[in-house]
Specification:
Blueprint: H1 5-27, E1 34-35, E2 38-39, H2 40-64
Antiparallel strand pairs: 1-2
Length: 67
């Protein structure tokens, strides 16, 4: 079954919020490892705050590619 561009764009845009919300409990207890001088939990959220707009841009390009 082929996936429409609308649905594919929706799924790409949904990745960041789902990972931030449901992935957070998996990384919350990890304070000890540091990445780039930040506790892992803070790095995790900052990383997804940067990756989120990139995914939204990709979703926008997918959605408007044929117009």
């Amino acid at each position: 079954m082929p996936v429409s561009r609308e649905r594919l764009a929706f799924l790409v845009a949904l990745i960041a919020p789902v990972v931030m919300i449901f992935g957070a409990p998996l990384v919350m207890p990890r304070v000890e490892p540091f990445v780039l001088g930040l506790p892992f939990n803070l790095f995790w959220h900052l990383m997804w705050l940067i990756v989120g707009p990139v995914l939204l841009t990709i979703a926008y390009i997918i959605r408007t590619r044929g117009e």
